[in-house]
Amino acid sequence: MEFFCYHRDRRGSLPLRKELLEAHWSYMDRYAAEMIARGPTFAADGDTPTGSVHILDLPDPATARAFAFDEPNYQAGAYRDVLLRRWRNLLGRTMWDFPGGRTGGNRYLVLGLGAGQAADLDVTPDRTDLIAYGPLLSDDGATWLGTAALVRAADRDEARAVLTPDRYAEIEVHDWAFGGRPA
Q: Are residues 100 and 131 in contact, defined by beta-carbon separation less than 8 angstroms?
């Protein structure tokens, strides 16, 4: 089962995140084999972290909840909230398989939150702008709740355009970067 997890930072938590950096990396190392994609989101200045995205293939919802809520930054209060949803990998690959590589161009997290009939599910794995892409689903996987995408785009407007605007109650666009422990 695939899951999308987005920890959103609490305002002013950067010193705490820096203090817990090695604990965060050690925790994430335990899930390296399950990772589909990962990486931080940033404020408009491009430097200040605003959250942390993890897309994983885990055995069940209980394991996903444990992953999200046992994370050291969450336990210490660095995050203000967590968006945890079932997800389906429509590209069938990990971010490490993205043909555009780890660098070059602007990268974004695009979250479309919606309800009702599913939207934007017809994508092909050969899309060169999509790093990760799939629907956000209810715990049982039966109900569409939105779409999450990691994209390479010229700017925020181009990133937002991967989703159909009138099909979502809200579309969020966040600066994002490939994650993982630095080499």
A: yes
* Beta-strand relationship, 35-42 and 49-57: antiparallel
Taking the C-alpha atoms of residue 103 and residue 88, their distance in angstroms, rounded to an integer, is 25
Strands 35-42 and 170-176: antiparallel
Per residue in 135-154, pLDDT (tens digit) is 999 999 999 999 999 999 99
Amino acid at 39: G
Cα–Cα distance for residue pair 153/48, rounded to 1 Å: 20
DSSP 138: -
CB 153 within 8 A of CB 105: yes
Residue type, 83: L
Reported pTM? 0.95
